[in-house]
Amino acid sequence: MVGSMDYTIFYKTSYSNGIIDCGDGYDFFFSSFDGCERTTSIFDTINSDKKTWIKFPHFQLDFDAIDGYLCTSFKEDECFIDLFSSIDISKSSKVCVDITGFIRPHLIFFIKYLHRLGLRKIYFLYSEPIHYKHAEDTTLYGFFVDVIII
């Protein structure tokens, strides 16, 4: 069919026990530094030539990572343009992004920026929590308490 979307390009694989099969590895791996075990365990075990922690100013955490990039701007464009000016990503680079700790607007801009660099294939990882603190009573999103006309 003309104009129809090929959804076979989107696939999902589940990995258990923290064992991730990434074949020969990646050229670049990016992860948001949020200090949680879910992101640090992936960062430590992933096979990549170049690993980069991205520390966003939204997270007030101590950050002294050797493989880190300290984003000082709250603006997505300023953060990533600066980051990518120091990294040589080509169209054929094999890039993997752990989206677990990424802030959504930053993730969207990050993906769009990689696309503008000519990258056509990106691998994404996301780590589910082992359990939620309040089990089935866990609130997974916020909600409005009051609506005020201004």
Number of helices: 3
Which residue ranges are poorly predicted, with pLDDT under 50 across at least 5 consecutive positions? Answer: none
Cα Rg: 17 Å
Major β-sheet annotation: 5 strands, parallel
- Compute the number of strand runs: 5
Content-based structural category: alpha/beta
Mean pLDDT figure: 75
Overview of the molecule:
This protein has about 150 residues and is an alpha/beta fold. It has a domain at about 30-130. Helices cover about 20% and strands about 15% of the residues. It contains 3 helices and 5 strands. The chain has helices spanning about 35-45, 75-85, 105-115, and strands at about 25-30, 50-55, 70, 95-100, 120-125. The protein has a 5-stranded parallel β-sheet with strand order 3-2-1-4-5, covered by helices on one side. Helix 3 (about 105-115) links the parallel strand 4 (about 95-100) and strand 5. The longest helix has 13 residues, at about 105-115. The radius of gyration is 17 Å and the shape is globular. The N and C termini lie far apart (about 50 Å). The model has no long low-confidence stretch (mean pLDDT about 75).
